[in-house]
Amino acid sequence: MNLMMVVGPVLLLFIVLGFVTYAILFERKVIGWIQNRIGPNRVGPWGLLQTVADVFKLLIKEDIIPAKADESLFRLAPVIAFVPAFAVLAVIPFTEKIQFADFAVGLLYYMAISSITIIGILVGGWASNNKYALLGGMRSAAQMISYEIPLVMSVVGIIMSVGSLNLHEIVEAQQKVWFIFPQFVGFAVFLIASISELNRTPFDLPEAESELVAGYHVEYTGFRFAFFMLAEYVYVFAMASLTTVLYLGGWNAPFGLTFIPPIVWFILKFSLIVFFLFWVRATMPRIRVDQLMQFAWKVLLPLALANIFITAVFKEIPVIGKFY
Amino acid sequence: MFGLVKGLGITLKNMTKPKVTYSYPDEPLEMPDRFRGIQHFDPEKCIVCNQCARICPTDCITLTGKKHPDPEKKGKVIDTYDINFEICILCDLCTEVCPTEAIVMTNNYELAVYSRDELFKDLEWLHNNNTNIRVENNSAKPKAPGGKSS
Amino acid sequence: MLRTEEMLLNVGPQHPSTHGVLRLIVKIDGETIVDAEPVIGYLHRGTEKLAEDLNYTQIIPYTDRMDYLSAMTNNYAIVHATEQLMGLEIPERAEFLRVIVMELNRIASHLVWMGTYLLDIGAMSPFLYAFRDREQILNLFNELCGARITYNYMRVGGVKWDAPPGWIDKVGEFVQYMKKQMDEYHGLITGNEIFIQRTKGIGIYDRETAIQFGLSGANLRVTGVKWDLRKNQPYSIYERFDFDVPVGQTGDLYDKYLCRMQEIVESLKILEQAVEQFPEGGSTMGKVPRVLRVPEGEIYVGIESPRGELGCHIVSKGKDKPWRLKFRRPSFYNLQILPTLLKGENISNLVAILGGIDIVLGEVDC
Predict the structure, then answer these.
(1) What span, in angstroms and rounded, lies between the C-alpha atoms of B29 and B110?
(2) Which chains touch C (3 or more CB pairs under 8 A)?
(3) CA quadruple B24, B28, B34, B35: dihedral sign
């Protein structure tokens, strides 16, 4: 048990690093295909080593800290941003067996820990002593706080249905019907809010390349920059896993196709979500910062609340009630 | 919402369309005949009329002539002919004014070098640059007397 | 009480969305722009002064580098002004070729605008799609005059090259292809809710302001002024073609987008007719003396470039070189309205409004 406590997370870290490496490549490939291009194909066969080369480049770069930056905070920010991203993975049940910490308030833990990353981004933006970084950091804080609320509200429907915050139990509850069907409104709100939480297009305002150059990490180079990027993609991993667990039935096989191992089902559903994120990125323009706020408070939040209400009502109706 | 979904459909449809990129450094790009690449110079044809140097908008051509080695013959022959590709804009005017087609365009366009000095091309280099020479030279320019353009 | 402070933000000259080397000194209060001041001149090459030492043929390649997105129209401006001053007759075939390349270039230029504008707003794919289709135009140009950007195609009295065999048919094919592609753009962008949100009602000005600032091109037409030099002061053979001048109603960025997209369609119409009526045979070069000596005098001609009224003012003292050459560059004039538009806007609208004006820095700084 003790050995597993040590080896497991290390193993997971490598799996996650592997995922990040190939998610970045896959993202570039997908966007390339969508844009009638080939995507990276120069480093390694089929471009497989492209990200490895990129990371290697980042690692050997000079470590620059701007003279007027707040040095200690500047060093600390990437760490604050990355640690929660990895910590949230502990509660995700990949299959019935593979889960590191199965405790009663898993969902709450995820939501709570993932908010800490904002502090890292805000600190990074502030400590850089750069105006673009400051604007990016401020936007990021405002955006993430706004979208956390609909994100949490949208999953309340599920919590009500299952009667538990335990992610394992939530998956168990979806053996017959995935929550995407009865909780479709909740799913839509969750998906939009999660894209926003991930700072991805169309909600990539904190790093809005064409406006703020690079946003909060404009002054970061080399290893520290890599950490910010790593945190971002680990969140893609975490969020796609969470969406799979909450709405797509986790490792449960559809149509009784149980001969395919559960982990494969999980990976399939998970990849679908990740692909969707990339696909959206290749299509959408960026939303404006004030519209983003309005959208969160005036559209998503009422929808999420309505979803809670509808779930509560439907739960009491005899025939439909058994789906809720 | 409908517009966004439609957009997603269009991007997805484009995923399966053929790729439009060129695999450029692997396969050199084929340029059409009229392409304005690095000039080829033929000293045999040159009559040292200096027109190319005069028309050049950036003054990148320098040439000197010398007396014809055969004392019987009149006129000059070319001695040195240099084009500075740091400032040459490949505008095609030199080949347009050349009365004997001593200087003509080729389809070669690879000009990247490690040192700026290498961009200074002399007569010998330009003479050896004899691949992919443009076939159709100055066809648009009427050769008949009186109808000549500048 | 919290004390708030205004902040000076330096946008550019190295910024992803300033379309080159424009610098904007923006005073912001939070994310609201209080004041904006464009600083230009980072790309100044002194084309007008250089031209005083060049003869008329030599100036043409220099004009390629002003508005590098539509070099053909620039070529035409100087060539047209010189011809007018000399009173030259241009062969019909040359005029047709000129119109075809100018309209192709207008489409290419608007495509680049559309792509980069969407890139400014945050969408990546339309940019690549626009360049994919622009590539076809550039390939056509490459075949015709041997260059993709800096064409140096027109000459005083005609054009340098006749169309190679089959080229006109290729233009006809491209017109059909492009018509199909327009649907894709409209599907991808025009109906996109986020795009509408980003552009509708932003950067509005009325027709009086537009006229006072001397705006031209789509920037003027978007306010409802039906002013297109191809129609109002016809030059070349534009009178022969049947096309419409699209105008906007509200003067916002969305209208600008629709206006320019519609202009592509109108250009395609012109191209279709030009390809159909393209004359068989004939010279592409008029009777021009060997050394161009422009008679003493002064002339101003304005033509409709993709960005607006591109004017060329030549003062000649009877030499083979202009005594003074002045270009009225539409980008430069259109840029003047930027500080007025930016006041009170959100910083996110900055790039949207700047992109909407459609400036080319090579032309602004000349």
Answers:
(1) 11
(2) A, B
(3) positive
Q: Is the pLDDT of residue B146 over 60?
A: no
Strands (E), chain C: 7-11, 23-29, 32-39, 154-155, 158-159, 297-305, 308-316, 324-328
Q: How far is A20 from chain C (nearest CA, A)?
A: 22
Give the tokens for residue C173: 């094919």
Tokens (6 digits) for C205: 């000005």
Give the range among A156-160, B123-127, C129-133 with minimum mean pLDDT: A156-160
Phi, psi of C180 (to 5 degrees): -70, -40
Which residue in A159, A227, A229 sits closest to A198, CA to CA?
A229
SS3 label, residue C199: helix
Is domain C6-365 in CATH 1.10.645.10, yes or no? yes
- Counting every residue written for chain B, the total comes to 150
Asked if B116 has any chain C CB less than 8 Å from its own CB, the reply is no
pLDDT digits (tens, 9 = 90+) for B76-135: 888 888 889 899 988 888 888 888 888 888 888 888 889 988 888 888 888 888 888 887
Contact A262, A244 (CB under 8 A): no
List the subunits that have 3+ CB pairs under 8 angstroms with A: B, C
Residue C313: pLDDT band with limits 50, 70, 90: very high
pLDDT at A269: 85
The answer to whether the CB of A93 falls within 8 A of the CB of A171 is: yes
Q: What is the mean pLDDT of residues C315-322?
A: 88
Nearest to A36 among B4, B10, B14 (CB): B14
Q: Extract the tokens encoding A197.
A: 């939480």
Q: C39 has which bridge partners?
A: C23
Position B144 pLDDT exceeds 50: no
More confident residue, A3 or C9: C9
> Which pLDDT tens digit goes with each residue over B6-23?
888 888 888 888 888 888
Residue A46 contacts B where some CB pair is shorter than 8 Å: no
Q: Which residues of A touch C185 (CB under 8 A)?
A: none
Per-residue pLDDT of C106-121, as tens digits, reads 999 999 999 888 888 8
**Domains parsed from chain B with CATH numbers:** 35-128 (3.30.70.3270)
Q: Is A192 on the interface with C (CB under 8 A)?
A: no
CA-CA distance, A289 to C29, in Å (whole number)? 15
Mean per-residue pLDDT of chain C: 87
User: How do the domains of chain C map onto residue ranges?
Assistant: 6-365
**C156 and chain B: CB distance < 8 Å anywhere?**
yes
On the CB side of C357, how many CA atoms lie within 13 Å of its CA?
A: 30
- Return d(Cα C19, Cα C359) in angstroms, integer: 7
pLDDT value for B148: 32
Q: Where are the domains of chain A?
A: 1-60, 63-316
